[in-house]
Amino acid sequence: MLIIGVDPGLATVGVGVIEAQGGKFRALEYGSIITKPRQLLEVRLEQIYDKLTEIIVRRKPDVMAVEELFFNTNQKTEVAVAQARGVILLAAQKQGLDIYEYTPLQIKQSVVGYGRAEKKQVIYMTRVILKLDSDPKPDDTADALAAAICHGNHAMHAVPSIFNR
User: Fold this and answer.
1) Contacts of 17 (CB under 8 A, 6+ apart)
2) CATH class for the domain made up of 2-164
3) What is the pLDDT of residues 57-79, one digit of tens each?
4) Residues assigned a catalytic role
5) Residue 148 has what DSSP assignment?
6) What is the torsional sign of CA 126, 128, 130, 132?
7) Within the chain, which residues score under 70 in pLDDT?
8) Long-range contact pairs involving 33-40 (C-beta distance under 8 Å, separation at least 24)
9) pTM
């Protein structure tokens, strides 16, 4: 199964495509979609949509695993990131992918074994599980790969989000 993991954001969207087979995982492609803060919001959203769609078309994943949003910042930032998440979900939907959503706690539990793990523990375990030569950078990329691993671990029990019903 090919899984595209996404860590939603506006300035930085983490993306990772992995292959999950028989409890083993292999990274196929990972990185970040970066948008410039001085650009209009609609331009940034279009860039996210276009670049993510390009990856989906090229890699042909079976499903998308996306991290649910968790906020404790200001409301303006929350709205912009939620809009970015909307275009991420739209890109997956337009390409016919089933979308699975996981909380940060679920992802950490699945990858590290502890739902309150620190970011550096998630990065380390993601590198180990995928047998990468170095830590995936930036953190958003590691989070996207971790979301994909989480789905691989939960594939037998996961339920598609309301977006595919």
Assistant:
1) 2, 3, 4, 5, 27, 28, 29, 30, 55, 59, 61, 148
2) alpha beta
3) 999 999 999 999 876 666 777 88
4) 7, 67, 140
5) H
6) positive
7) 71-74, 156-165
8) 35/10, 35/11, 37/11
9) 0.91
